[in-house]
Amino acid sequence: MGGKAKNEETPLVSIVDDDTAVRVSTLRLLRWSGLKAEAFISAEEFLASKFLSDTACLLLDVRMSGMSGLELQRRLTENGRRIPVVFLSGGASEEEEKRALQAGAISFLRKPVPKEGLFRALIFALGGTPNNPLKEL
Predict the structure, then answer these.
(1) Cβ-count burial of 114 within 10 angstroms (0-12 exposed, 13-18 middle, 19+ buried)?
(2) Is the CB of residue 54 less than 8 Å from the CB of residue 84?
(3) Strand ranges for the chain from DSSP E
(4) How confident is the model at residue 129 (pLDDT cuts 50, 70, 90)?
(5) Could you please report the per-residue DSSP string of 44-61?
(6) What gap in Å lies between CA 106 and CA 126, rounded to an integer?
(7) CA angle, 73 as apex, 51 and 84 as ends, to 5°?
(8) What pTM was estimated for this model as a whole?
């Protein structure tokens, strides 16, 4: 499926993770799968980006330097931005997972995340999005 042409209707997935290896490998995987994807090292960088309003789904780490993923999720909700959130975490507590899900996260995945698990969460999060190339998986 790699090499699919991306068009303007393809949903944008934004990745916010301060772990360089996770951020870069996830970005490459999503682009290879036909999605538009952008990656950010921090919640602050994402909030200041031109991609905030176009993001159809957010892949978000819980624990990051600066603003946490849970704080970003809360701020987006307070500002009326209903972006589906899939959390990716390597060290979050059960309490953090519970808070994320209660606040409306679509899914909470533990690192390392198997590709199939990530795609299942994205298919669910983007289910109502037109031209979702992952529907074909």
Answers:
(1) exposed
(2) no
(3) 12-16, 36-40, 55-61, 85-89, 107-110
(4) low
(5) HHHHTSTTGGGEEEEEEE
(6) 10
(7) 65
(8) 0.88
- The one-letter amino acid code at 115 reads K
Distance CA 87, CA 89 (A): 6
Question: Rounded to an integer, what distance in angstroms lies between the CA atom of residue 8 and that of residue 119?
Answer: 21
Q: Terminal CA-to-CA distance of the chain, rounded, Å? A: 9
How many residues comprise the chain? 137
CB contact set of 49 (below 8 Å; sequence gap of 6+): 14, 38, 40
Domains identified in the chain and CATH numbers = 12-126 (3.40.50.2300)
Per-residue pLDDT reduced to its tens digit, 43-88? 999 999 999 999 999 999 999 999 999 999 999 999 999 999 999 9
In the numeric block, the tokens 């602050």 are attached to: 44
